Amino acid sequence: MTFKERFSQKHGCSLANFDRLVFWHSLKPAARPFCMALFWACPGYFWVDMQTIRLLGDAKSTTECEAILQKYRQLILPRPGRGESRRLFRISSTRLARLCDQVMAPEILPARPQLMPPACVAPAISMQ
Predict the structure, then answer these.
(1) Cystine design at 57: which of 4, 10, 68, 97 (Cβ 3.0–4.6 Å)?
(2) Distance (Å, rounded) from C-alpha 101 to C-alpha 66?
(3) pLDDT tens track for 76-124
(4) Does the residue 30 lie in any domain?
(5) pLDDT for the residue 109
Protein backbone atom coordinates (compact mmCIF):
# COMPACT_ATOMS: atom_id res chain seq x y z
CA MET A 1 0.00 0.00 0.00
CA THR A 2 1.24 3.49 -0.79
CA PHE A 3 1.46 6.37 1.65
CA LYS A 4 -1.45 8.06 -0.15
CA GLU A 5 -3.73 5.04 0.25
CA ARG A 6 -2.78 4.50 3.91
CA PHE A 7 -3.21 8.18 4.78
CA SER A 8 -6.61 8.32 3.07
CA GLN A 9 -7.73 5.17 4.83
CA LYS A 10 -6.49 6.28 8.25
CA HIS A 11 -7.93 9.81 8.04
CA GLY A 12 -11.11 8.89 6.15
CA CYS A 13 -10.54 11.23 3.20
CA SER A 14 -10.77 10.72 -0.51
CA LEU A 15 -7.66 10.21 -2.62
CA ALA A 16 -8.46 13.45 -4.45
CA ASN A 17 -8.09 15.49 -1.23
CA PHE A 18 -4.83 13.83 -0.19
CA ASP A 19 -2.49 16.59 -1.42
CA ARG A 20 -4.26 19.41 0.35
CA LEU A 21 -4.79 17.53 3.62
CA VAL A 22 -1.14 16.50 3.87
CA PHE A 23 -0.12 20.07 2.96
CA TRP A 24 -2.13 21.56 5.84
CA HIS A 25 -1.04 18.79 8.24
CA SER A 26 2.62 19.49 7.47
CA LEU A 27 2.55 23.25 8.08
CA LYS A 28 3.61 24.67 11.40
CA PRO A 29 0.53 26.01 13.22
CA ALA A 30 1.92 29.55 13.44
CA ALA A 31 2.46 29.69 9.66
CA ARG A 32 -1.00 28.45 8.63
CA PRO A 33 -2.82 31.83 8.45
CA PHE A 34 -0.06 33.39 6.35
CA CYS A 35 0.23 30.31 4.14
CA MET A 36 -3.52 30.29 3.57
CA ALA A 37 -3.37 33.80 2.16
CA LEU A 38 -0.23 33.01 0.18
CA PHE A 39 -1.74 29.75 -1.12
CA TRP A 40 -4.68 31.57 -2.71
CA ALA A 41 -2.78 34.71 -3.79
CA CYS A 42 0.22 32.96 -5.33
CA PRO A 43 -0.38 29.20 -5.74
CA GLY A 44 2.88 28.71 -7.66
CA TYR A 45 4.85 29.56 -4.51
CA PHE A 46 4.10 26.11 -3.08
CA TRP A 47 4.83 24.17 -6.28
CA VAL A 48 7.91 22.41 -4.84
CA ASP A 49 6.00 21.56 -1.65
CA MET A 50 3.06 20.08 -3.55
CA GLN A 51 5.37 18.08 -5.85
CA THR A 52 7.11 16.67 -2.78
CA ILE A 53 3.75 15.65 -1.30
CA ARG A 54 2.74 14.00 -4.59
CA LEU A 55 6.01 12.05 -4.64
CA LEU A 56 5.44 11.02 -1.03
CA GLY A 57 2.01 9.73 -2.02
CA ASP A 58 3.64 7.05 -4.19
CA ALA A 59 6.11 5.94 -1.50
CA LYS A 60 5.66 2.41 -0.20
CA SER A 61 8.03 2.48 2.77
CA THR A 62 9.45 4.86 5.34
CA THR A 63 12.87 4.66 3.68
CA GLU A 64 11.38 5.94 0.41
CA CYS A 65 9.66 8.73 2.34
CA GLU A 66 12.94 9.70 4.02
CA ALA A 67 14.79 9.78 0.68
CA ILE A 68 12.14 12.09 -0.81
CA LEU A 69 12.23 14.36 2.24
CA GLN A 70 16.03 14.54 2.09
CA LYS A 71 15.84 15.81 -1.51
CA TYR A 72 13.21 18.35 -0.41
CA ARG A 73 15.46 19.58 2.42
CA GLN A 74 18.30 20.10 -0.04
CA LEU A 75 16.04 22.18 -2.29
CA ILE A 76 14.77 24.50 0.41
CA LEU A 77 17.87 24.93 2.56
CA PRO A 78 18.86 28.58 2.63
CA ARG A 79 21.84 29.65 0.59
CA PRO A 80 24.67 31.35 2.49
CA GLY A 81 23.69 34.88 3.44
CA ARG A 82 19.96 34.43 2.88
CA GLY A 83 19.04 33.28 6.39
CA GLU A 84 15.87 31.38 7.15
CA SER A 85 13.55 33.54 5.03
CA ARG A 86 13.18 30.91 2.30
CA ARG A 87 11.93 28.30 4.75
CA LEU A 88 9.64 30.54 6.75
CA PHE A 89 6.47 29.68 4.83
CA ARG A 90 7.17 26.14 3.72
CA ILE A 91 5.95 22.76 4.84
CA SER A 92 7.89 21.26 7.72
CA SER A 93 9.94 18.26 6.66
CA THR A 94 10.06 17.20 10.32
CA ARG A 95 6.26 17.20 10.55
CA LEU A 96 6.07 15.30 7.25
CA ALA A 97 8.57 12.69 8.46
CA ARG A 98 6.55 12.22 11.66
CA LEU A 99 3.36 11.88 9.62
CA CYS A 100 5.03 9.28 7.38
CA ASP A 101 6.16 7.31 10.42
CA GLN A 102 2.66 7.38 11.93
CA VAL A 103 0.90 6.36 8.72
CA MET A 104 3.43 3.82 7.44
CA ALA A 105 3.86 2.12 10.84
CA PRO A 106 3.29 -1.62 10.77
CA GLU A 107 -0.28 -2.62 11.44
CA ILE A 108 0.69 -5.52 13.71
CA LEU A 109 2.08 -4.32 17.00
CA PRO A 110 3.64 -6.66 19.54
CA ALA A 111 1.16 -7.93 22.09
CA ARG A 112 1.19 -6.30 25.49
CA PRO A 113 2.17 -8.57 28.34
CA GLN A 114 -0.78 -9.64 30.45
CA LEU A 115 -0.78 -8.13 33.91
CA MET A 116 -1.31 -10.76 36.55
CA PRO A 117 -2.72 -10.00 39.99
CA PRO A 118 -0.09 -10.16 42.69
CA ALA A 119 0.33 -13.66 44.08
CA CYS A 120 0.97 -12.43 47.58
CA VAL A 121 -2.49 -11.09 48.31
CA ALA A 122 -3.05 -11.82 51.97
CA PRO A 123 -6.28 -13.65 52.79
CA ALA A 124 -8.64 -11.99 55.21
CA ILE A 125 -7.88 -13.06 58.76
CA SER A 126 -10.82 -13.62 61.02
CA MET A 127 -10.38 -13.25 64.77
CA GLN A 128 -12.65 -15.53 66.73
Answers:
(1) 4
(2) 10
(3) 766 555 555 555 678 888 899 999 988 887 654 454 455 544 445 445 5
(4) yes
(5) 47
> Minimal CA–CA distance to 36: which of 52, 48, 20, 51?
20
Establish if 120 belongs to a structural domain: no
Residue 124 lies in a domain: no
Quick check: is 78 in a domain?
yes
Domain count, the chain: 1
Q: What residue numbers bound the domain in which 36 lies?
A: 3-12+22-104
Amino acid letter, residue 122: A
